[in-house]
Amino acid sequence: MKYLLFLLMMNSACATSVKVEPMKPGELVTVESQPGFVRWVSFPVQEGWENATLQCKDQKLKHAPLGQGMRFAYIAETYHSDLSAFKCKLIQGKEEREVIDFSIKPFKYKEEKLKVPFRTIKLSKTDLARAQREQRMLAELYTKSAALPYFNQPFIAPLDSYITSIYGNRRVYNNAHKSQHLGTDFRAAIGVPVPATNRGRVLFAGDLFYTGGTVIIDHGMDIFSVYGHLSEVKVQEGQVVNRGDIVALSGNTGRSSGPHLHWGVKIHGDYVNGYSLIDESKKQFP
Ligand SMILES: [Zn+2]
């Protein structure tokens, strides 16, 4: 029993300590990304700079300790990227230090055509008012992410069924209205149990105009997962859920062209490809 306990402790110690390249303070970490992708980035921080502000372009990003003088952040590049390179810096008082050198390669997204109910495109005055009200409510909620991660293992896809629409497709609705699909659609009949993609706190559980029955989970560090078009919501706001816990049943509610699960990943304000978060989180928990 004692030995087993020792093994378990060793295991959890291994799971949390990440091997990172030794770096000297002042050395720039170089990272390459693409529009709609997130990168897990570890960087050295000099003693006394642990609480410094990490700023990339005009965004202040949350960062967390990795041990051995290293910290990490999940850095998302917007789908609407202008592909220009930038440097992230730590700011403390009047001092600044560049820590990450970011470059962006282009990515070609495909186009798809869809038919949806006309009323979900040309909104009535009432629907428009509702959609705008919800947008303001969500914008406020998205400012409430926990400073540190809730999760202690990699992210997983909510379903492993056939993907009917990948992230980033440029969409033409009813041959007229254009937008982008900034999530992943999984084939799912009405009533399929939907697990949480990782541990987190339920930020929203309810009904929205566009995504119908919706669950939003805050994973901490401004990382959120969104589950849409649900037939039934199984969790309550404020509840902490573990990876794999059933949070809802799939459905066909909101602006939907058939039963499926829409899974979105939003990271500090930008929807990114959820699979890039899955891949990158494996670097944090190798
Ligand atoms: Zn979708």
Keywords:
2 domains, disordered N terminus, 3 helices, 286 residues, Glucose Permease (Domain IIA), binds zinc ion, five-stranded mixed sheet, eight-stranded antiparallel sheet
Q: What string gives the helices and strands in order?
A: HEEEEEEEEEHEEEEEEEEEEEEEH
Radius of gyration: 20 Å
CATH superfamily of the largest domain: Glucose Permease (Domain IIA)
Q: Strand portion, in percent?
A: 35-45%
Q: Which range best describes the helical content: under 10%, 10-25%, 25-40%, 40-55%, 55-70% or over 70%?
A: 10-25%
By CATH reckoning, the class of the largest domain would read Mainly Beta
Tally of DSSP β-strands: 22
User: Which structural category fits the helices and strands?
Assistant: alpha+beta
The small-molecule ligands in this entry are: zinc ion
Major sheet attributes: 8 strands, antiparallel
Oligomer: single chain
Number of helices: 3
CATH-assigned fold name of the largest domain? Glucose Permease (Domain IIA)
The CATH architecture of the largest domain can be given as Distorted Sandwich
